[in-house]
Request: fold
Amino acid sequence: MPETTTPLDPRRWKALIFIALAQLMVVLDATIVNIALPSAQTDLGISDGNRQWVITAYALAFGGLLLFGGRVSDLWGRKRTFVTGLIGFAAASAFGGAAVNTGMLLAARALQGVFGALLAPAALSLLAVMFTEAKERAKAFGIFGAIAGGGGAVGLILGGVFTEYLNWRWTFFVNIPFAVVAAAGAFAVIREPAESRNPSKLDVPGVILATLGLVSLVYAFTRAESDGWAAGATIGLFIAAAVLLIAFAVVESRVKAPLLPLRVVTDRNRGGVYASLGLAAIAMFGLFLFLTYYLQVTRGYTPVNTGLAFLPMIATMIAGSTQIGARLMTRVPARWLMGPGFLLATIGMVLLTRIDLNTSYATGILPALLLMGLGMGTAFMPAMSLATHGVQPRDAGVASAMVNTSQQVGGAIGTALLNTIAASATTAYATSHAAGVATKEAQQLLMFESAVHGYTTAIWWAAGILALAAAIAVVFVSAGRPGGAVTGGGQAAEDAVPVMAH
Reply:
């Protein structure tokens, strides 16, 4: 690709504000509903069997359609896709806030996922093509990364405040002002470079195979949670997912304009980044869920206090992202930020395996959260920068979408997988300790002890998965400093774009 010098957009920093605002909305929506779910379940009469679908409907639509959304933004124009995604997301949120029954709420969550899948890759790839100077880019993506990384915990806090003081419906309505402000701002200040568009046709077979394959994979883990790993439906879904995704890879290697050009994922560095980010998402999403239940159910925290308990983790995540990751990623090889970062977060997780019924927040939970935030923030910045390192601008949308896909699919899998492990460990502990438990108080105590045993077992698994992410980062990520000068073959440094998603 010939080197070109595109003049810097004078309004790029204003654009960053609105793009980051949209990303914050999408990210916090993944967790804000978690805390509001018990209230919504009671209000709408949602059955215990269906309540998980309020979370899963969003994850399935979002994770399954992200690659499609990434390619649409490359073909149709990122600004147009971004604004369309915002307006659709606001409409779906209004529909969810007005829900009068289970079906209406689940439909709204699925629609939020569909428009989120358009919005998220468009936001990331807009930044990829607007910030073309290495130091500015590191600063811009440090800010964007901190906002996106902390968005999940911000969702927990807002979810707690709305549920406790207003009504669960506000966890949906809050998206409308976010979306309106971001859409109006984007319309006014974003100017997308014309040469970054990809004019090729949409790969329809690829869209169908990728979407069905990813949905089958996430749904298989969800069914394993409810039906068990050996159930016919669970095994059938895993087989279907494998067949569909293999067929997708075959189709992509043969069509002229693939949905996911295999060159994007077969690069050793990007492959290592996507794998390590997916594993980190499996560990972190599951952990958020267990810690929320532990604090609210076992320790009796209010929804607001539960959200506030996560604040120190956001603070160290922002510090790790902006003060360590963004500052060092132009000087230190990415593997030596990603590997130690994930390892530091693993140590934090191991500390959490020691929780019991009376663990002090200050001495037992806070140190673990601080380490996890610092480690994940440090690892994420160089990881995101490498996710689109050396990618041609016309593939920026789909490369950005792969970051989102690995994290969203990883998060959905992590929630289901670790929940299954926790539930099995809880049942086994309760059964083995049931002898001689006669009084109601003793039974209640055993129930709490069994639940905590389930959480700690799952957290051990999460720590192991995160350690594997660290190992993959060190072994497979071999590129040097991803913010640097022109790379081989005339590939300009503007292709080495750091991107952050949740």
